[in-house]
Amino acid sequence: MSETSETSETNEWQLTRTFRSTSGAVRWDSLGPPGQDPVVLLHGTPFSSYVWRAVARALARRHQVYVWDMPGYGASAKSAGQDVSLAAQGRVFTELLAHWDLAEPLVVAHDFGGAVALRAHLLHGARYRALALVDPVALAPWGSPFFRLVGEHAEVFEQLPPALHRALVREYVSSASSPGLHPAVLDQLVRPWLGDLGQAAFYRQIAQADQLHTDEVQDRYGEIAVPALVCWGQDDTWIPAAKGRELAARIPGARLETIAGAGHLVSEDAPAELTAVLAAFLQRPGNGPFRSRA
């Protein structure tokens, strides 16, 4: 893709609708024909629905695809004292499903979004027709040394000069990709975390990232009874692929698919490969053979 087309695509990704959640205004949108099988995409941290743009547009050929920015992320509300914890996000996702009137959607969740989808399902009774987890935060221990350092000293990092903060966030986000991110993509992923509001929000979401929120549910993964796919970037340096194998073994009947050449941000590193895997799973989540390439 040329630099011009990538920049144009970046500028075209807009969420046009708003839902007033218990953790602030959530920006969301839907793609594809209304009435088709619904698919909901959940992003992770420190990202936004933007990382799903290519996958969402491809899946929208056969599905009605719902995308949203979690409170405190992307285009959604950011405010001092805001609860952006995994516990809060799980509740907000449950609220959104009710707002959308989706009884049993197909759910695809990346990174922290995986923990959000798992908590909503196991703790809040959210029902899914199938669940695909892409490099999810799901099993302890998680969080890099950098992530833990920032979480323990968020109030110090919040005071970084803007230029240093920008450089730190760019380096951190870049490390989620194995082959490297297009400059326009990196700019888009970093932009929500800039300025006074964005800088405070960046460190707030890390400070509230408590492993207790996955400890609460990880011993219950054996209760998941819907068709499940665990998908992992083979070159993920944030969460090693071994965690994917462990997670798939904990979920009854889960299928494991690894994607070569992709890091943690699989939807950016290998969007075509990921779309093919997800499309095949979503079209027949509980039926027919599905070859695992673990």
UniProtKB/TrEMBL annotation:
<feature type="domain" description="AB hydrolase-1">
    <location>
        <begin position="38"/>
        <end position="271"/>
    </location>
</feature>
<protein>
    <submittedName>
        <fullName>Alpha/beta hydrolase</fullName>
    </submittedName>
</protein>
<dbReference type="InterPro" id="IPR000639">
    <property type="entry name" value="Epox_hydrolase-like"/>
</dbReference>
<dbReference type="Pfam" id="PF00561">
    <property type="entry name" value="Abhydrolase_1"/>
</dbReference>
<dbReference type="InterPro" id="IPR050228">
    <property type="entry name" value="Carboxylesterase_BioH"/>
</dbReference>
<dbReference type="InterPro" id="IPR029058">
    <property type="entry name" value="AB_hydrolase_fold"/>
</dbReference>
<keyword id="KW-0378">Hydrolase</keyword>
<dbReference type="GO" id="GO:0016787">
    <property type="term" value="F:hydrolase activity"/>
</dbReference>
<dbReference type="InterPro" id="IPR000073">
    <property type="entry name" value="AB_hydrolase_1"/>
</dbReference>
